[in-house]
Amino acid sequence: MKRIKELLKEKKVLISDGAWGTELAERGLEAGECPEQWNLDRPDEVKAVAEEYVEAGADIIITNTFGGTWLKLAKAGLGDKVSEVNRIGASISKDAAGDKALVFASMGPTGEFIAPLGTITENDMLSCYAEQVEALVEGGADGIVLETFSDLGEVKAALRAVKENSTLPVVASMTFEAGPGGFATIMGVNPKQAAAELTAAGADLVGSNCGAGIKHMIKVARLMRGVTKLPLWIKSNAGLPELVGGQTVFREAPKEMARRYSELVASGANVIGGCCGTTPEHIRLLVAQRNKRM
Fold first, then answer.
1. What are φ and ψ of residue 98, in 5° steps?
2. For position 2, what pLDDT does the model report?
3. Is the pLDDT assigned to residue 103 strictly greater than 70?
4. How many CB atoms lie under 10 A from the CB of residue 128?
5. pLDDT score for 260
6. CATH number of the domain enclosing 258
7. Residue 243 pLDDT exceeds 80
8. Domain count of the chain?
9. What is the rounded distance in angstroms from the CA atom of residue 221 to the CA atom of residue 13?
10. Which residues, other chains included, contact 233 with Cβ-Cβ below 8 Å and sequence gap of 6+?
11. What band does 242 get if pLDDT is binned at 50, 70 and 90?
């Protein structure tokens, strides 16, 4: 966390990378294919994504390990390769980052619920995430980002696993949708509740990713900033997804996202990046906006 604090003091706002799934799809990842398999079979393609974001000027890049828990990898026939997939995933991004960027390894939801909502015990969930954390540490990650979570119970279990099995700084990020009652995850967690409870649970940064474009994220950031003093991590989609000709399309252009940079910062965001549909060009223009104000 010391390095993050130093960088924030120096640059005021840090820029994270953009979408990985979007970029891997451009390189041939098929719908339904396990992205983490590419860490083993096509590491050069994975590294190319990381390198593009480093070249765009990102201060922080993530890893191709979002679905790297045993519960997710087992469904793709990779249940016996959890350590290998995550260790290699972290090392690929570290090699690409060099001394130009930090690497925050990505950890996502398992797709299961802790009992009584589901059949997974809390201890089993903790063990599942702990196995992933240990491999990411071995791969050289500088931090961990828990992203795209909707259930507070699961993200807290993941957070606890990171804290108990590493000394790395950890981001806890949830996904909120806009509805008649305001913003909430699909499990009914609102931004204020998430920020307050994740701060109390020991996260080093809190925030939101995915779900909506930057216009909505400005509102989410403002709500979260009202209840926490921790740095806010905000990574919006390139607008809301649209289905066109059987393909998912995101229409928020790089210039549109960059145009709202100042509004997002004014709402309290400290680390800004992109999620689904964003590209290295989105990140390049966000970096340019930040640099103009340094």
1. 55, -130
2. 81
3. yes
4. 21
5. 94
6. 3.20.20.330
7. no
8. 1
9. 14
10. 16, 145, 171, 173, 205, 206, 207, 208, 209, 269, 270, 271
11. low
Q: Count Cα atoms within 13 angstroms, Cβ side, for 3.
A: 14
- Assess contact for 173 and 149: CB atoms under 8 A: yes
Average pLDDT of the residues in 185-192: 96
Rounded average pLDDT over 228-246: 82
* Cβ neighbours around 191 below 10 Å, total: 25
pLDDT tier at 248 (50, 70, 90 boundaries)?
low
**Tokens (6 digits) for 90:** 């972290």
The pLDDT assigned to 253 comes to 85
Token pair for residue 19?
Answer: 């979408």
Identify the pLDDT of residue 211. Answer: 85
Q: Which of 50, 48, 46 is nearest to 17 (CA)?
A: 50
Give, in order, the Cα–Cα distances in Å from 287 to each of 6, 53, 74, 103, 276.
Answer: 18, 11, 38, 17, 18
DSSP label of 212 = S
Query: What pairs with residue 107 in β-bridges?
Result: 146
| Cβ atoms 253, 291 nearer than 8 A | no
**Is residue 60 predicted with pLDDT exceeding 80?**
yes
Using the predicted structure, report yes or no on whether residue 141 has a pLDDT greater than 70.
yes
Instruction: Write down the residue that tokens 């793709």 correspond to.
Output: 76
* DSSP-derived 3-state class of residue 76: helix
Q: What is the pLDDT at residue 244?
A: 62
Q: Which of 96, 119, 133, 98 is nearest to 280 (CA)?
A: 96
**Domain range enclosing 151:** 2-292
| Per-residue H/E/C for 269-286 | EEEEEECCCCCHHHHHHH
Residue 171 CB burial class (10 angstroms; 0-12, 13-18, ≥19): buried
